[in-house]
Design brief:
By secondary structure, this protein is an alpha+beta fold. The chain has a single domain, classed as Nucleoside Triphosphate Pyrophosphohydrolase, CATH 3.90.79. The protein contains 3 helices and 9 strands; from the N terminus they run ββββαββαβαββ. Strand 1 and strand 2 form a beta hairpin.
């Protein structure tokens, strides 16, 4: 069973998203995702979330809200349990970026080897190309739901919510 984290970082009515277009043989190619990745051996989901956000965005999470577990089941890919987080409490690790952030509240995303990072307005988020199941929990996040747990059954790219 694959175990991962995914974090939606919010700032000024926008969400930091990753457009996946740089990894060979990436099943997420051409889709927008939150920030996250695989939980390493001996690592808790919370530790993974902090590490992945720092590695992919250059942001230090000061706190994050754990929403729940999204269970992905598929006829094509390995089953996955994904720990869903969101945060609006962060600071840039880079001192120059941190100074700009303190002054303006803006953070221009750095280069990421997995794709293009971009701040997307919350009202545009659901119009982006993303996995069908992601759309289901992103909608709940945008509605302000604190607890989100779903089981998503994929047949190819078609998703059925079987629990939640």
């Amino acid at each position: 069973m694959k175990r991962t984290t995914l974090c939606y970082i919010r700032n000024k009515g926008r969400v930091l998203m990753l457009f996946r277009d740089r990894k060979p043989d990436d099943p997420n190619e051409g889709k927008w995702l939150g920030i996250g990745g695989r939980i390493e051996e001996g690592e808790t989901p919370g530790e993974c979330n902090v590490r992945e956000v720092l590695e992919e965005t250059g942001l230090i999470l000061r706190s994050a809200h754990f929403h729940g577990v999204i269970k992905f089941r598929s006829d094509e890919y390995d089953d996955e349990d994904m720990y869903l987080y969101s945060s609006d409490d962060f600071a840039p690790a880079d001192e120059k970026a941190a100074a700009v952030f303190r002054e303006t509240g803006d953070y221009p995303p750095p280069e990421c080897d997995e794709g293009r990072l971009e701040w997307i307005a919350e009202d545009k988020l659901l119009s982006l190309p993303m996995w069908e199941g992601d759309r289901a929990f992103v909608e709940k996040l945008l509605e302000g739901q604190k607890e989100i747990s779903l089981t998503l059954q994929y047949t190819g790219e078609h998703c059925t919510i079987t629990c939640g």
